Amino acid sequence: MTIRAVVIIAAGATLGACGSTPPELPQPPAINVYQCVTPAGMTAPEPQPKRPRGEYTQDDVALYITELHRWGTRGWLKLARVREHADQCANSAEDDEENN
To answer: Cα(19)–Cα(37) distance, rounded to whole angstroms?
Structure first.
């Protein structure tokens, strides 16, 4: 067989494949998807406390550390509320599925 014959056979096979249609894929089952979007107010960032600069006293450092602690505590409380919100939303979605 020559190269010319191989090229002609390959071209014929390629063009023959264009005329065929692929088998139809089965449709996936319907799935209920629930999205629990956290309200923007629950995730809004708060600015970090300003560090003391320049000439500062131990009182300035103590005030900064106290404010930093409060800032961190507010962040953890926000995270706890977001988790609680997500859990409530997931539970209500499960309840809806059970009732349907």
So the answer is: 48
Residue 70 exposure: Cα atoms within 13 Å on the Cβ side? 8
Which of these, 76, 53, 75, lies nearest to 64 by C-alpha position? 53
Whole-angstrom Cα Rg for the chain: 32
| Residue 90 Cα to chain centre, angstroms | 16
pLDDT in tens, the chain (100 residues): 578 777 788 777 777 666 667 778 888 766 555 567 788 888 889 999 999 999 999 999 999 999 999 999 999 999 999 999 888 888 876 666 566 5
Helix, strand and coil percent figures for the chain, each rounded to 5: 60, 0, 40
State the Cα–Cα distance between residues 86 and 43, nearest whole angstrom: 13
- pTM of this structure: 0.55
C-alpha triplet 64, 70, 73: angle, nearest 5°? 140
